[in-house]
Amino acid sequence: MVNIAFYLSNKNIRDVDCSDVFNGNPGIGGSDYALLLLACSLTQNHNDLNVLVYVDEKSSLPPVLKTRKVSDLIRQTKEDNIHILTIILGSFDNHTLDSFHQNEHLKIVIWASNFFWRKDLSYYAKNKQISKIVCVGFEQLDLYRDLSVFKKMAAIYNGAGADCTRKQQDMIPFSGRPFHVTYIGNLVPQKGVHILAKAWPQILKVYPDAVLNVIGSGKLYNRNARLGDYGIAGEEYEKTFMPYLVDSDGQILPSVKFLGILGKEKSEILQKTRVGVPNPSGRTETFGYTAIEMQACGTLVATVKCPAYLETVCSSAGILYDKQKSPDKKLAESVISLLSRDDNHHEEVMQFLETNFSIDKVSGIWYRLFTDMMEGKENPVVPVKANNTYRLKHWKEANRKLKNFIPFGYKILPSLWYVDDFVWKMKGLFMRKHLIKYLYRRYILKKIIEQYL
Predict the structure, then answer these.
(1) In the predicted model, what is the mean pLDDT of the chain?
(2) Does the structure show a pLDDT above 80 at 436?
(3) CA 339, CA 210: separation in Å to the nearest integer?
């Protein structure tokens, strides 16, 4: 019997009913949902695994799971004789991870539901107790192809429940749907709702009877967050996007509906939506559950071209735009184009979702990963599968092979990941129309003026 444990930091979701994750996300973050769904599937389908979920607080979790509230995770894993502990990237700092050496037989899996900080990449490569790093997509994995940490990496998609992989009943035919556009996600700058807000007046010019549904809140990941005057997002962030969604009197436009945090009931809205917009900035997005939820409900998807959506958006069900210049204009054009379509190709989309994201298939891949770890098998090299020229991946693969061929290659040759990361950050900075204003807001320019003039 192999003892497998997951750690879930559930303080912010302790009041959410998470007892039935197989039938949809109850309104929690994608990383937490993915963890609970995977743990449930492994528990039900693999009797040779003893699966335990460690939590911070007692809450309404799936009854099939064995859960335990812990205050000292390191000590508890030793007492429970845990062989493999899986933690979401960012759950612990490197100092805390160092402390796990007290349980020297424990293997740690880092589940990369977020992007890495540069300083962490070399640390994970050197830490022998970290046995595997699981990216949630192959495009995410390819970003790090020529780094030494790549030797520990694997790619496994997040799993989706029955609500996303089985055809839903009583959906409104696409041709009969009103011109509804729906956003789902956290209302914070990283998730890009400000881009959609800026695009909305452009969309209304072509479709004046269109309706924008906004599902989410600035409190999705922090239920105690302080919101602005409209009670929608953080005070400062509200000021950046609400001017596009209110009239001259400051009243929210009749075409805009803010619906707050929803659980399974969001499917009813998506089933009569023509176009869904998940995270139009692409920042922090490694997988993108909302794109899958939208497609499962027969909704077409308009969002940015980024590693997450290259893999989770079916080619026949959406448009991925390039964000380098005027992202709001590109988004508006994409939404307008999709609103004019008369077919959502739903049978093809459902086949795509079932093939790639069925939780039974995904948990089977995780099961093989765990058993290979226990048997001491080496991590196979994942080949480049698609989009060969995207984000320098063909050059990164050539660089990886060269580093493996040359003695001390990883020590003497630079990584193209650093070049790629720098270029993308600089593009995002200098493509802004109001660069001076951007700098001034962050007091950089102000400090320079005060110091030298």
Answers:
(1) 88
(2) no
(3) 9
Report d(CA 299, CA 367) in Å as an integer: 32
Q: Judging by DSSP bridges, how do beta strands 66-69 and 2-8 pair with one another?
A: unpaired
CB 54 within 8 A of CB 68: yes
Per residue in 9-25, pLDDT tens? Answer: 988 888 889 999 988 88
CA distance 177 to 192: 26
Q: Among all chains, which residue has been given the structure tokens 């079916």?
A: 314
* Contact yes or no for 180/266 (Cβ under 8 A): no
Half-sphere exposure for 394 (CA within 13 Å, toward CB): 5
Q: Which domains does the chain have, with CATH numbers?
A: 2-161+360-375 (3.40.50.2000), 164-356 (3.40.50.2000)
Per DSSP, 137 falls in state: S
The CA angle 292-294-296, to the nearest 5 degrees, is 70
User: Distance between CA atoms of 172 and 25, rounded to whole angstroms?
Assistant: 22
Alpha helices in 150-261 (DSSP H): 162-165, 193-206, 235-241
User: In the chain, what are the helix, strand and coil shares in percent, each to the nearest 5?
Assistant: 45, 15, 40
How far is Cα 166 from Cα 254, in angstroms, rounded to an integer?
Answer: 34
Q: Which two tokens stand for residue 427?
A: 């593009």
pLDDT higher than 80, residue 221? no
Residue type, 255: S
What DSSP character marks residue 85?
E
State whether residue 243 is helix, strand or coil.
helix
Report phi then psi at 310, rounded to 5. Answer: -60, -25
